[in-house]
Amino acid sequence: MTLPPLHILLAAPRGFCAGVDRAVQIVERALARYGAPVYVRHEIVHNRFVVEELERRGAVFVDELDQVPDSAPVVFSAHGVPKSVPAEAARRKLHYLDATCPLVSKVHREAERHFAAGRRILLIGHADHPEVVGTMGQLPPGAVILIESREAAEAVEVADPRRLAYTTQTTLSADDTAEIVAVLRRRFPGIQGPKKDDICYATSNRQKAVKAIARRCGALIVLGAPNSSNSMRLVEVATAAGCPESFLVCRASEIDWQRLAGIRQLGITAGASAPEVLVEEVIGAARERYRVTLEEIAVTREAVAFKLPKALTVSA
Question: 223-267: per-residue pLDDT in tens?
Fold first, then answer.
């Protein structure tokens, strides 16, 4: 039987960013140096495939530090943690490694700087996301007001508009965030913001890449996890950019191929915490059903790398 044709447009950049790559390497190197088990507070990144691979090697994922034995090494996730977490680890004399993405740490330092200058801080982000919890946890309760939408930006009231600053979660939609910032700047002309956009380079690049292919696609698949903010934003960006048949899957096995019946151009991308092997898995599954041709559309090339903690790079 002759297979129908399918032209796959691969968005680039896609998949692992430097912060995720660093976090995964920290767990892998900790396992190599200290042996299993190595404990990890929360998912190191929001991807079950990655988490399960590390579990197979000996990583143990826990919700809180009270689940970590006194003698075991522990890694903090890439999303960042409140200050109370390393403080508790130090109190218990745990050997801990902080895998917080340096771009998230940048937001933490910005918030601290504004607080030290006496400014109230508006944090643009999603409630209960680990990154937001970590950023708000850098400062005393009440120092940060969370802004989740344009409506919230229109409604927020502050005691002194002259002493106000904003920061953002790093994995938001660049377009949506710009709209919220525009509202805040209109309402509070003196508000202080970051010298450089807090939306991380990888989030912005992956969104630009999706925009570059969305209108050419009959459908677009985002490889990622439902609890991954940057992956969910890619679905929203693709839909808004002209491909209403955009959806998220964790693995190729989740794809409803009947949903793609009649599609001749399929877009594929991956969130910043999804490894390239998952993209290859989807392409392989497509080849079983179609005569596949591939075209990669690159909006930029990334060459960012972050240093690992000294504890994992110096000789034991």
Answer: 999 999 999 999 999 999 999 999 999 999 999 999 999 999 999
SS3 at position 106:
helix
pLDDT digits (tens, 9 = 90+) for 302-313: 999 999 999 998
Query: Which residue carries 């989030």 as its tokens?
Result: 203
Would you state the structure tokens that stand for residue 43, as one six-digit string?
Answer: 């998912």
**Amino acid letter for position 313:** T
φ, ψ of residue 168 to 5 degrees: the values are -135, 155
Query: What is the SS3 assignment for 105?
Result: helix
Catalytic positions, please?
131
Helical spans, DSSP H, in 119-200: 130-136, 150-155, 174-187
**At a CB cut-off of 8 Å and minimum separation 6, what does 38 contact?**
27, 30, 31, 58, 59, 60, 72, 73, 74, 75
Over 70: is that where the pLDDT of 160 sits?
A: yes
**In the chain, what are the domains?**
5-16+201-298 (3.40.1010.20), 18-101 (3.40.50.11270), 102-187 (3.40.1010.20)
The C-alpha angle 171, 280, 5, rounded to 5 degrees, equals 110
H-helix or E-strand containing 157?
Answer: none
User: What is the value of pTM for the model shown?
Assistant: 0.94
